[in-house]
Write a structure and sequence with these properties.
The protein folds into 3 domains: 182 residues, Orthogonal Bundle (Hypothetical protein af1432), CATH 1.10.3210.10; 141 residues, Beta Polymerase, domain 2; 125 residues, Ubiquitin-like (UB roll). The protein has 22 helices and 10 strands. A 5-stranded mixed sheet has the order 1-2-5-4-3. Strand 4 and strand 5 form a beta hairpin. Helix 7 packs antiparallel against helix 8 and helix 11 packs antiparallel against helix 12. The protein is globular. About 11% of the residues have low confidence. InterPro entries: Beta-grasp_dom_sf, HD/PDEase_dom, HD_domain, NT_sf, RelA_SpoT, TGS, TGS-like, TGS_RelA/SpoT. It comes from Candidatus Zambryskibacteria bacterium RIFCSPLOWO2_01_FULL_43_17.
Length: 509
């Protein structure tokens, strides 16, 4: 069993107060759960220590780790909210209460399951630490899923693939989403998982020798140009990620070039572009395979230069070039920027992630309800996709529609489109100018008279593609029609169209 000392050892520079808090939460949880067991027959407390360890590994604060140790105390023991509040204070009770309200594994049936998803997203909007505890809890449950009765395994794994892994990915926590995907994949798609495991083993063994030879040549070329401060590593593509890519490529493994990729990690952004130039000056790149995610990051914040080159010996290699900060963010995402010690946030959070601070309670009130979705919705710096998830909670929608909306709006492939001023708008694939207009502002959508894509007039049902520049024309007298519901792909745009049409009809009546 993991000791309190081991967990504390993973915290970056813990204060005396941090150490005492984690030790106290550890002892309290151990006593509260002393008679509880898991499906495996192991003490339930082991699950709590593993959850706390995961939180510590992802750089969470002592407060979040303590809440992770205590997160099942109210639901599964005789411990009361008053007891927790008196011993650990209102902030930790706030986090525990947020996790307890989700009650994800306690629900049975589609309607109650989907209602728990609504609670998950509202908790996420109120304080992102609640979500981090839930993700850590789910990760350890997936690591031990083989102990769960077989009839439950596939349901839990499918839920992980459909909901939890995509949320972690959208928050940029690729390390966590990748592990969740690869743990769940064999339970949901056993035959495909077995086949891909054999395929990657063959490709890895076959390509590793050539990749090491290519790496030596790259280092030699960089040293010749005076670049010596580089760190390199190999990346093996996750099995589920490979599965999705093979579906896109019509299951042709020969068209997937990044099963094994080379990472070059450097101190500065200028180094990235210089190294890309050196590599292309020696090795010929594949057309259409050069991606600048530094200038145009992915929706989850991922940044790097990516290119795929012919090595000259018949092989093709993907090369990823990024800074240490980009690499850290690619693996840990939002978690790499979460610091909850007062005075420790300013100056360390990139501008694109300033919204994180708005998900933290500024000053906890006596009843611990200091952060609500109402106050949260006023924060302009929060990413639009998180705002929209919270809006879904307030829409009286059919549960299945709600879940389908989440899947299509937030967890499918995303595209980047631009306003004429160069602002980037993140939308689901196959979105239209209608979705674009409403994602900018309801007033723009409600008064849209026409649209141009890349300078050309287009119909409102035109599917947008990555890199399109969209210009919306508005007129005071223009109004949305029910026909637009067929054009809109996002649930948010459809809701706003229905609302505008409904208000107009009420005025007529």
């Amino acid at each position: 069993m993991i000791s309190a000392k081991e967990i504390i050892g993973l915290i970056d520079s813990p204060s005396r107060e941090d150490i005492l808090l984690v030790e106290s939460a550890y002892e309290f949880a151990e006593k509260a759960h002393e008679r509880h067991e898991r499906f495996s027959g192991e003490p339930y407390f082991i699950h709590l220590t593993e959850t706390a360890k995961i939180l510590a590994e992802y750089g969470m604060s002592a407060t979040t780790i303590a809440a992770g140790l205590l997160h099942d105390s109210i639901e599964d023991t005789e411990v009361t909210e008053e007891m927790l509040k008196e011993k650990f204070g209102p902030e930790i009770l706030f986090l525990i209460d947020g996790v307890t309200k989700l009650g994800q594994l306690k629900y049975r049936g589609s309607d109650r399951h989907n209602e728990s998803l609504r609670k998950l997203f509202v908790a996420m909007s109120e304080d992102i630490r609640v979500l981090m505890i839930k993700l850590a809890d789910r990760l350890h449950n997936m690591r031990t899923l083989f102990h769960v009765p077989k009839e439950k395994q596939k349901r839990i794994a499918a839920e992980t693939l459909e909901i939890y892994a995509p949320i972690a990915y959208r928050l940029g926590i690729r390390k966590l989403s990748r592990e969740l995907e690869d743990l769940a994949f064999p339970y949901v798609y056993p035959a495909e998982a077995k086949r891909l495991k054999e395929l990657t083993r063959e490709r890895y063994d076959k390509n590793l020798e050539g990749l090491e030879k290519f790496l030596k040549s790259v280092k030699k070329a960089l040293a010749k140009e005076g670049i010596t401060k580089v760190r390199t590593e190999y990346r093996v593509k996750g099995l589920y990620s490979l599965h999705k890519k093979l579906l896109i490529k019509k299951k042709d493994p020969d068209q997937v070039f990044d099963v094994l990729a080379l990472r070059i990690i450097v101190p500065q952004i200028t180094d990235c572009y210089q190294i890309l130039g050196i590599i292309h000056g020696i090795w010929r790149p594949l057309p259409g395979r050069i991606k600048d995610y530094i200038a145009f990051p992915k929706p989850n914040g991922y940044q790097a230069l990516q290119t795929t080159v012919f090595t000259g010996d018949g092989s093709i290699v993907e090369v990823q070039i990024k800074t240490e900060e980009m690499h850290r963010h690619a693996e840990y995402g939002i978690a790499s920027h979460m610091s909850y010690k007062l005075g420790n946030v300013a100056g360390k959070v990139p501008e694109s992630l300033q919204w994180i601070k708005h998900l933290l309670p500024k000053q906890l009130s006596k009843d611990t309800a200091s952060v609500t979705s109402k106050t949260f919705s006023k924060n302009k710096d929060v990413p639009q996709w998180i705002k929209e998830i919270v809006e879904h909670h307030n829409i009286e929608d059919d549960n299945e529609k709600f879940r389908e909306g989440l899947r299509s709006d937030f967890f499918e492939h995303r595209i980047f489109v631009f306003s004429p001023k160069g602002d980037v708008v993140d939308l689901p694939r196959a979105s239209t100018p209608v979705d674009f207009a409403y994602s900018i502002h309801s007033d723009i959508g409600n008064h849209m008279a026409g649209a141009k894509v890349n300078g050309k007039l287009v119909s409102l049902d035109t599917a947008l593609h990555n890199g399109d520049i969209v210009d919306i024309t508005t007129k005071t007298g223009a109004k949305p029609s029910t026909k637009w519901l067929e054009y809109a792909k996002t649930t948010s745009a459809k809701h706003k169209i229905r609302s505008a049409v409904h208000k107009r009809e009420n005025k007529k009546n």
